[in-house]
Specification:
binds flavin-adenine dinucleotide; alpha/beta; about 425 residues; 24 strands; globular
């Protein structure tokens, strides 16, 4: 790594915040801003708009009253956290950030008149609209798997009731059973997520006397983030319990039978019989982004990375997982960082000031066991319509004594601080 993690964080925070902490223009008129999605991106954007544009009227809308955070979902699945401890509530977020909230599904957006329509019958007009609506699953790619049937092979990738049901299903797998994790093709939410899940399930099985259980990772890719580190850690900690099947070896899940638990990999004539399959489907931007005409042929939303304003509709901003922001990963930390930049750009535009310099940051920690973590970090700039990596780093393959343990402690601290930053103190 060319910068230490501490330097990276300090530089990025300073760079993200400095250009926008000057006094707000007294002449700024009261602008109406609607933020759709109270997850990591939307909640952070609403909070930052409130701070940087205090005269603006900010409304935060989410279809859900509560949900589980993606980060630490894998810990909740394996008994290292309670589901309640990773649950957040929309109204609490609004209260903590001093913004109005509305629990309602946005069913349409007219990008020209900037009117938002909701399932509850509201028609709301705004000067600016920010969307951080997250992802939707691309059903129909894996034969036999649909939104209705996915509860039988729960992905637990959307923070809904599947988190609790997958936790119960993991506990019911017998010693000597087979668990199959279906890992999706790029791009998708939380690139290390399926591999962290395999690690923590393996540790949980060992702790609960089920060492003969097999975890197969059926992958639609031939590579994944931190692969050498994950493979080395699995080898050392879990031996033959975890088997990764890359795409080149036919790993991609092609078909499932949700009633029997059978899974067919690409080109296979006979199925794999599973006691539990957790299949994470291919993904795209959440449905509302498509309905508002904000996605391109990739299924994701093209944006100007200096402001996260849509490249397709002026005055509408899209950030977080739904946006095309590669090489940044689709992560909570990236969404939080993008949200601050987006809010600063909107506040500057309302003040008639130029947009601030774009500096963003991400670190993805992955627990490979309760007390061991690995990480990858990146520091990013944006110019001429592109996001560029300024500096990046990854945990060393051979760890000095105690490093993995220290990274696990940092992961826990990171979770608490990003949750508080994005959502306020939990009740
Ligand atoms: C298992 C797992 C582990 C993860 N681990 C990490 C990690 O360790 N570190 C990390 O940085 N990231 C992690 N992530 C990724 C992280 O959860 C996402 O990247 C992050 O939540 C993206 O934030 P967002 O604001 O784009 O979307 P979200 O947080 O999903 O928020 C979107 C919100 O929009 C709302 N919404 C959508 N459509 C509408 C509509 N039409 N009307 C009203 N509301 C709507 C949804 O209800 C939702 O609450 C993990 C994810 C998973 C699944």
């Amino acid at each position: 790594m060319s910068l230490s993690r501490r330097q990276l964080l300090q530089t990025a925070l300073a760079a993200t915040l400095l250009p926008v902490t000057g006094p707000a223009s007294a002449a700024r008129r009261k602008a109406r801003i609607i933020v759709i999605g109270a997850g990591f991106g939307g909640a952070t954007c609403a909070k930052t708009l409130r701070l940087l544009s205090p005269t603006s009227d900010v409304l935060l809308i989410d279809a859900r009253a509560s949900w589980c955070t993606g980060p630490f979902t894998n810990l909740a699945l394996t008994g290292l956290r309670s589901v309640a401890s990773i649950t957040r509530h929309t109204t609490d977020i609004g209260r903590a950030h001093g913004v109005r909230t509305l629990i309602d599904e946005v069913t349409g957006i007219d990008p020209v008149s900037r009117t938002v329509t909701t399932a509850g019958g509201k028609q709301l007009v705004a000067d600016r609209i920010v969307l951080s609506p997250g992802i939707a699953m691309r059903w129909g790619v894996i034969a036999g798997l649909s939104a209705e049937l996915s509860g039988s092979m729960p992905h637990a990738w959307l923070g809904d009731s599947q988190v609790q049901s997958l936790r119960e299903r993991i506990d019911a797998v017998p010693d000597g059973g087979t668990i199959l994790i279906g890992a999706p093709p790029n791009p998708y939410r939380c690139p290390p997520g399926p591999y962290e899940r395999a690690s923590l399930i393996a540790e949980h099985l060992l702790k609960t006397g089920r060492a003969r259980t097999k975890i197969l990772i059926a992958d639609a890719k031939d590579d994944f983030t931190k692969r050498p580190l994950f493979l080395a850690e699995w080898d050392e900690r879990y031996g033959a319990m975890i088997e990764w099947i890359p795409r080149a070896k036919g790993g991609e899940v092609a078909r499932v039978d949700t009633t029997t638990g059978d899974v067919w990999l690409r080109d296979a004539t006979t199925p794999i019989a599973t006691h539990l399959a957790t299949i994470v489907p291919p993904q795209q931007a959440a449905a509302i982004a498509g309905r508002a005409g904000l996605v391109d042929e990739s299924g994701w939303c093209p944006v100007n990375p200096q402001s996260f304003e849509s490249s397709l509709h002026a005055g509408i901003h899209v950030l977080g997982d739904a946006a095309i922001a590669a090489p940044m990963p689709k992560s909570a930390f990236a969404a939080n960082s993008q949200a601050k930049l987006c809010a600063a750009a909107i506040a500057a535009a309302l003040d008639g000031r130029p947009a601030p310099d774009a500096r963003m940051i991400n670190t993805c920690y992955s627990l490979v066991a309760e007390d061991a973590a690995i990480s990858v970090s990146g520091f990013y700039s944006a110019a001429s319509g592109r996001i560029a990596v300024v500096s990046e780093g990854v945990s060393p393959l051979t760890a000095p004594d105690g490093l993995r343990r220290r990274e696990a402690a940092q992961a826990r601290d990171w979770y608490e601080s990003i949750s508080t930053d994005s959502f306020g103190k939990s009740a």
